[in-house]
Specification:
Number of helices: 13
Helix content: 40-55%
Order of helices and strands: HHHHHHHHHHHHH
Shape: elongated
Largest sheet: none
Structural class: mainly alpha
CATH architecture of the domain at 1-68: Alpha Horseshoe
CATH topology of the domain at 1-68: Serine Threonine Protein Phosphatase 5, Tetratricopeptide repeat
CATH superfamily of the domain at 1-68: Ankyrin repeat-containing domain
Length: 234
């Protein structure tokens, strides 16, 4: 759809087009005349999100400076927001821009699930993960089913991300996380093995050992839970 199809209000359409062209004087003039930087169009599409889709850095940043809300959830477009979109974007300019103008690092996506951290991890945007953490993202954020960025990362076998979250204070239901990591059973010849083992060692140091049925060969050395007599068991 074109901007004309999405934004029926003439003033809003003019603002969107100015933002997409990065025309700062025109953006300023339109806002001074009453254009709303938080106006929406078809399916709750926001002016800010449209400017991002145009890849207009200048226009997007000016909208933010003039009060555009990076956390506005476009409910009819899947409950997504500019900040959440930026967290999963491969473009390194979007997330710093959103966070610098009030972007909420703990924002969630569709249905109130999948945090910005989870999205960034899923999309392999580790720079974004670090940015979110630097801006105070809650590593222990979880949904009603107990799913968190760490358990999502474990399910995706992204153990470097699990390690990063643990080092940033993740401590929610560590037994379940231990089991989730362990059952992935990464063999020694797999490039992910070193990170997998480091995560299990971090968890073991915190007193958490796998209590699920072990794979053939048992837990890695040093990670077996203690037996009743204080020794390890296979």
């Amino acid at each position: 759809m074109s901007a004309k199809d999405v934004f029926k209000d003439p003033q809003t359409l003019a603002l969107v087009e100015a933002a997409c062209h990065g025309d700062i004087p025109k953006i300023d003039a339109l806002v001074k005349q009453g254009a709303n930087v938080n106006a929406t169009g078809y399916r709750d599409m926001s002016v800010l999100a449209w400017a991002m889709a145009c890849k207009s850095y200048r226009g997007t940043e000016r909208l933010l400076e003039l009060g555009a809300n990076p956390n506005f959830k476009m409910k009819e477009t899947g409950d997504i927001s500019p900040t959440w979109i930026a967290a999963g974007s491969r473009d390194p300019r979007w997330l710093p821009m959103m966070l610098a103008h009030g972007g909420y690092p703990n924002i969630t996506g569709p249905g109130g699930f999948r945090s910005a951290l989870s999205l960034a991890i899923e999309q392999n945007r580790m720079q974004n993960v670090q940015l979110l953490l630097d801006h105070g993202a809650n590593v222990n954020e979880h949904d009603s089913g107990g799913n968190s960025a760490a358990t999502d990362a474990a399910a995706l076998a992204k153990f470097d991300a699990v390690e990063m979250l643990l080092k940033h204070g993740y401590d929610y239901n560590l037994q379940d996380l231990t089991n989730a990591v362990y059952v992935e059973h990464i063999p020694p010849n797999d490039p992910k093995h070193a990170a997998w083992l480091r995560v299990l060692q971090i968890l073991a140091a915190k007193g958490f050992h796998p209590n699920v049925v072990p794979h053939i060969g048992g837990p890695p050395p040093g990670l077996a839970p203690p037996s009743s007599d204080g020794g390890g068991h296979p």
